[in-house]
Amino acid sequence: MNNLLSEGLGLMVFGMGFVFLFLTLLVFVTGFMSKLVMKYEPAPKPKAAKPLPNSAGKAVAQGGNDELVAVITAAVHKYRS
Predict the structure, then answer these.
(1) What is the mean pLDDT of the chain?
(2) d(Cα 78, Cα 71) in Å, to the nearest integer?
(3) pTM
(4) Which of 5, 38, 59, 79 has the most CB atoms at less than 10 Å from its CB?
């Protein structure tokens, strides 16, 4: 019985050690790949803001449009009910 228990513990230590080594290697390889990609591939540039449609842009530029405010209020009211 003692031999079987020691063999089981040895197998457990071997298995856990193998998993630990594999995960450690995975962390280092992933970090290396990340640095390699960042070196050769530049970071994406942020996209410019999309301009507003004419009616909405004019309403914002004029300080507000009563019709636009009424439409937005009606939409919010319908959404909440």
Answers:
(1) 84
(2) 11
(3) 0.47
(4) 59
Number of domains in the chain: 2
Same domain, 29 and 67: no
Please determine, for residue 72, whether its predicted confidence score (pLDDT) is greater than 70.
yes
Domain interval for residue 21: 1-46
Measured over the CA atoms of residue 38, residue 40, residue 46 and residue 50, the dihedral's sign is negative
Same-domain pairing of 14 and 28: yes
Q: Express each pLDDT in 10-26 by its tens digit.
A: 999 999 999 999 999 99
Q: What gap in Å lies between CA 16 and CA 18, rounded to an integer?
A: 5
Q: Of the candidates 13, 62, 50, which has an alpha carbon nearest to the alpha carbon of residue 5? A: 13
